[in-house]
Design brief:
CATH class of the largest domain: Alpha Beta
Protein name: 2-dehydropantoate 2-reductase
Strand order of the largest sheet: 5-2-1-6-7-8-11-12
Oligomer: single chain
CATH topology of the largest domain: Rossmann fold
GO molecular function, one term: NADP binding
EC number: 1.1.1.169
CATH architecture of the largest domain: 3-Layer(aba) Sandwich
Organism: Halomonas urmiana
Structural class: alpha/beta
Function: Catalyzes the NADPH-dependent reduction of ketopantoate into pantoic acid.
Strand content: 15-25%
Mean pLDDT: 94
Order of helices and strands: EHEEEEEHEHEEEEHEHHHHHH
Radius of gyration: 19 Å
Shape: globular
CATH superfamily of the largest domain: NAD(P)-binding Rossmann-like Domain
Length: about 300
């Protein structure tokens, strides 16, 4: 299979380099990256691959068998716009974004099958030619309208064979919302206060997490989204603290974006929850405060710095 990986961040390059051992891969970015890329495995081995590279404004003439959109959520639709005229109808699109913002819109807009992926794989970029696979995880694939099951199963097999364990599921919407809830309870706090995930277990942050859980539980219940274990806030509390424990040493992706001076995925993670709260007449002042603060940061980033 020929795979286009659009978005050369940590996740995009992890997917690209894992697939490069078994498939033809082209890594597509806004600028040209080195064709020789190094993957540092969780066991600290350095694996070197050569991949195809291209700019999004100079796409290859060959037609891919699948396109993996691995940009941040706020860049996904613009990236798809740049691709759309170069893809014949029917080319599958896999969306790897956090949150639940672009997925419904692109599922309607793309002229072909659309699968959504949610993953717990951990990775971070070291430089333009090196990415670290920080921790093994699991990936779920499925379409929002519960179609394309055979395609999801095929791509799950491809990913699993490449070292990224994956599974085709028929409840991807629920899984995306579950991850959205976990991200909303963790990412804004660690991003705003510059802490690693494990520090949320300690004062003064544990009560802040609990306050967010108290807001999240009724919103998710109103949307028909149950936690994987237990009921109500008890189930969500168990899930979130399990994730905090398992990722205690991690710098969440939103914190990495803040530290690198990039936009965060606050709109994709927090805005859908606040929209749902409004639909159901529920208060969510903590979530709203985080969204307002991260929007103010985004506005500040967009301002010219001046100077001579």
């Amino acid at each position: 299979m020929r795979h286009w990986i659009v978005g050369p961040g940590a996740l995009g390059r992890l997917v690209a380099l894992r697939l490069a051992g078994t498939a033809e891969v082209t890594l597509i970015a806004r600028r040209t990256l080195p064709a020789e890329q190094t993957l540092i495995t969780p066991a600290h081995a350095a694996l070197v691959f050569r991949v195809g590279v291209a700019r999004i404004d100079a796409l290859p003439s060959t037609i891919p068998d699948a396109v993996h959109l691995t940009t941040k959520a706020h860049g996904a639709e613009a990236a798809h716009d740049a691709l759309a005229d170069h893809l014949p109808d029917g080319v599958p699109l896999v969306l790897w974004q956090n949150g639940f913002a672009c997925q419904p819109r692109l599922s309607e807009r793309h002229a072909g099958p659309v699968l959504c992926a949610t993953t717990t794989e951990g990775a971070h970029v070291q430089d333009d030619a090196r990415v670290t696979h920080a921790g093994h995880g699991h990936t779920f694939l499925g379409s929002l309208d519960d179609r394309h099951r055979a395609l999801a199963a095929q791509l799950a097999d491809v990913l699993s064979s490449a070292g990224l364990p994956a599974e085709a599921v028929d409840d991807i919407r629920r899984r995306l919302w579950r991850k959205l809830a976990v991200n909303a309870a963790i990412n804004p706090l660690v991003a705003r206060f510059g802490i690693r995930n494990g520090e949320l277990r300690d004062a003064p942050f544990r009560p802040r997490v609990e306050a967010l859980l108290a807001e999240l539980a009724p919103i998710l219940s109103a949307e028909g989204i149950a936690p994987p274990h237990g009921e109500g806030i008890t189930g969500w509390r168990r899930l979130v603290w399990q994730v905090v424990e398992a990722t205690a040493a991690n710098r969440a992706s939103m914190l990495q974006d803040v530290q690198a001076g990039r936009l965060t995925e606050h709109e994709a993670i927090l805005a859908p929850l606040l929209a749902a709260a409004k639909r159901h007449g529920l208060a969510a002042p903590g979530l709203a405060d985080h969204l307002a603060a991260l929007r103010a940061r985004a506005d500040a980033l967009a301002q010219p710095t001046g100077g001579c």
